[in-house]
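hi got a favour to ask and not much time before my train. below you get a single protein, a line of residues and a line of whole numbers that encode the local backbone shape. could you go over both lines and see whether the tokens make sense for that sequence. a few lines back from you is plenty, here it is:
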Amino acid sequence: MSKKILVVEDEEAISRLISYNLKKEGYDVTVSADGINGLAKIRSEKPDLLILDIMLPGIDGYEICQTVRRENSALPVIMLSARADEVDRVLGLELGGDDYLTKPFSPRELIARVRALLRRTQNLRDTLDHDIFTIGGLSVDFSAREIKVDNQTVPLTPKEFELLEFLIRNKGKVVSRDQLLDRVWNYDFAGDTRIVDVHVSRLREKIEPDPKNPTYIQTVRGVGYRFKERH
């Protein structure tokens, strides 16, 4: 069965371009031109992936992304923007986007990112690992993709879960930001390691007893991160 992708984009030319190229790759594509209708379609269509423009009439992409994360933390989201400012990219990621593309972008780049995000999301769903990792008040069930902190379930986005899983699987080892970009994001971000820092910050807010003084995800200055060894 082909994957369902919802494109929420108000610029008709861009929407048509995205839709045409996704359909050519065999995806089932639905399109919405405004935020209110787009949010309704997210709830009714239940897509496998969302491509979301930031500047939309009705409700903007930031607000939609926040709502999506409250209602469906597992939906992969690629955010689109005509603005290349780092603050816009960081805000989009902090609000729950898994990826961010600046207009204009090539259809090949979009398709590559769609494939990578869908593949990694599917791989997580299909994993045969049944181990549960616990440390302190944190418990991670890899097969169920369930995270608990002090016995309370904590929702993570797909990319947050992948990042946490990779760090845990390599616990005690220092992993660089470039390694994380390569292994978790699965493609070249042209040295934009800020995306790693944003996701680590979001993870810490969700799992650390004190995010400003992290216990689990430790920063190795000038290099990257290390997940604390089990004690």
The chain has a mean pLDDT of 86.
